[in-house]
Amino acid sequence: MSDILNKILAVKSREVAAAKLIKPQTVMRAEAEQAAPARDFTGAIRAKIARGLPAVIAEIKKASPSKGVLRSDFSPADIAASYQQHGAACLSVLTDEQFFQGSAAYLQQARAACELPVLRKDFIVDEYQIYQARAMGADAILLIAAALDVAQMQAFEALANSLGMAVLVEVHNTIELDAALQLATPLIGVNNRNLRTFDVSLQTTLDLLPRIVSAPSHLKGEGRGEGKSQGGGEGARIVVTESGILGAADAALMRTHKVNCFLVGEAFMRADDPGAELEKVFL
């Protein structure tokens, strides 16, 4: 685990402890259970792929620890509306405050401005954050295999599913992938950014791809060996390539390998019109 990730997780644990003092988990759970129904995050991705289109999870991110502020003119609602207009399947919104200058309010503003399902992009270390995610309107959460063990991920996944949310599990290498494949979620995110060096290589996705495609499905009702395809059909695992998609050539490379789902942030955030950039790269 990288030093920066260790630092983020330590801060996150302190944040959760402080949040529980302000709003106990029983209260947060009640808010989550009373929230309006979640939008179908996985279904939105499958629908795009079924039509032969790239399924883009378009990210709303103001800053990052390594790059600083990515977009000074930052309006989550306007960005979300532009993404929807130009063909995004879903949104990803950073809610981490200290390291990414994110906010729960940004997620709420973005979701209210469109009809797309929204992923809460944060560092989940406690079930409290899952209730918090649903209470703020999130339709999906991110679980990072580098930060959690299999038992934690399975418990967090079950809780998210019980609240109607999808789970995107993120991996960086084969060890993390083997852990992630023990979850039921079809959404396997491969982060092409090395957590230690911050170097980015699309080869990471290509190297892990055969292992994902050949893995048996853990989805309920699926027989062993089914769900191997990443074509997006019901029960199929869906590879989500993350980081390093900077232009049309990168997107085309992934699609030639039948990787049809993309989580992209930085390339869009730096563009004058994020949605127009999405369409330029993918459509």
Write the layout of secondary structure elements.
Blueprint: H1 3-22, H2 25-34, H3 41-50, E1 55-60, E2 63-64, E3 68-69, H4 76-85, E4 90-94, H5 104-112, E5 118-121, H6 127-136, E6 140-144, H7 150-162, E7 166-171, H8 174-180, E8 187-191, H9 203-214, E9 238-242, H10 248-256, E10 261-264, H11 266-269, H12 274-282
Parallel strand pairs: 1-4, 1-10, 4-5, 5-6, 6-7, 7-8, 8-9, 9-10
Antiparallel strand pairs: 2-3
Helix pairs in contact: 2-6, 4-5, 4-12
In short:
The chain is α/β, with parallel strands linked by helices. The protein has a single domain (3-282), classed as TIM Barrel (Alpha-Beta Barrel), CATH 3.20.20.70.
Folded structure, characterized:
With 283 residues, the protein is an alpha/beta fold. The chain has a single domain (3-282), classed as Aldolase class I (TIM Barrel). 43% of the residues lie in helices and 16% in strands. The chain is built from twelve helices and ten strands. Residues 220-229 have low confidence and may be disordered.
